[in-house]
Amino acid sequence: MQGNLCIRWSLEPPKRAAELKFFLEDPANFEIIAAAFNQSSRFGRLQSIKCAIAGKNLYTRFFCSTGDAMGMNMVSKGTQHVLEFLQNEFPDMDVIGISGNYCSDKKPATVNRIDGRGKSVVCEAIITEEVVKKVLKTEVAALVGLNMLKNLVGSAMAGALGGFNAHASNIVSAIYLATGQDPAQNVESSHCITMMEAINDGKDLHISVTMPSIEVGTVGGGTQLASQSACLNLLGVKETNRELPGANARQLATIAAGSVLAGELSLMSAICAGQLVKSHMKYNRSNKDVSKA
Hints:
By secondary structure, the chain is an alpha+beta fold. It is 44% helix and 21% strand. The chain is built from 11 helices and 8 strands. The strands form 2 sheets. Strands 2-3-1-4 form a 4-stranded antiparallel sheet, with helices on one face. Strands 5-8-7-6 form a 4-stranded mixed sheet. The model has no long low-confidence stretch (mean pLDDT 91). Pathway: Metabolic intermediate biosynthesis; (R)-mevalonate biosynthesis; (R)-mevalonate from acetyl-CoA: step 3/3. This is hydroxymethylglutaryl-CoA reductase (NADPH). Its EC number is 1.1.1.34. It is an enzyme of class 1 (oxidoreductase).
């Protein structure tokens, strides 16, 4: 998980902002900064720091491990401890807010796609030619071509920000609601690039989804609700993994990515086979002729 804060300097801008940036990013100072952060939690551990300057403003992104929790509150608490330490070292620092949107939480942002946020997962599968033809009712070449023109080129034409997929957010939203995650974080958690490639002399299909910012936890928040707790238990990832803290949350992230892959394959195959509208009309629409109503 990543936290962030926004610091504005009241003296000698922007020189002092640059001095703090160098201080925070200097490996020689990391241990003392990490000690300030880590004292706030049993599981929260500072891993690295990244800074960016805009005029006299310094934006700082903290990269932290948070065990099996999604960890936003944990990161905020640790960040507050670092702020208190920094204000002793840099008394002219004017803290504007503990969140400066450099995280970036609940908003589409390129920084999350590049640096990651929460869990970063790549999921892949090989679908044989027989399955593509008999089950998915289409052809490998057709799927590869549609993925290129729709998910990649079409998304680029639309100026997509992380949305190089067919409908990843549908699956992510469903899993988040079922397992007690923050549904608003579907925004960045649905960043996904779907890739398809013909392999084995063009006979079989290799499909993958790359999801750099899946934000999930198996403790805290909505995970404690009865229905959501039952779903986590069904998936085998309920609460904290005491032998390897963080393992349950990572497993839940892989489940989400695997589900997205299955959803991508299903929808893309339906489009290739010309079944998308037909299936909606058959299973999700009234047969009533509205023109005669």
